[in-house]
Amino acid sequence: MTKKIQLPITDNDIRELKAGDSVLLSGTILTGRDAAHKRLFELIENGEDLPVDIKGELIYYVGPAPAKPGYAVGPAGPTSSYRMDKYTPALLDLGLKGMIGKGARSKEVIDSMVKNGCIYFAAIGGAAALIAKSIKKEEILCYEDLGTEAVRRYTVEDFPCIVAIDCRGNNVYENGPKKYRK
Questions:
Q1: With helix as H, strand as E and coil as C, how does 131-167 read?
Q2: Which residues are catalytic?
Q3: Considering the entire predicted model, what is its pTM?
Q4: How many Cα atoms are found within 13 Å in the side-chain-facing hemisphere of 174?
């Protein structure tokens, strides 16, 4: 059964979701990749304010292609999440509630997720055109000079994803293969 979540995500939503759950997200999410994360992290290290409020937000690791007529964005598939791992615990400590990407996360990220009550969703790699259909609007928030890696706000409707790691640290990348071993 697919669960529908209206964003912003709540702590109760996060507690109820379990690794492996199929989810459709509707509302707004932030976007950002390596270069934006590095800049945000440097501001945190220097004790400076961030140019965008991340508290209570989800961030999608994506660098969208140019939009075709009639679409808010072009193909918008997930980026490999491990590339943001060194920056993620600091963002979670500041109130980021979750991430959307693809692939496994480090032990440090998972420990920080459990500590902060956060969630990690996997979007389907290779489904960038399908995912783009669920993105209804985009707005650049900061770091426009980074091009596709700028921090944006997407308005999404029924954005498809799977709970990859829940707030208790249950992890489909570790537990999923165990189901099929003899």
A1: HHHCEEEEEEEECHHHHHHCEEEEEEEEEEEEEEECC
A2: 37
A3: 0.95
A4: 9
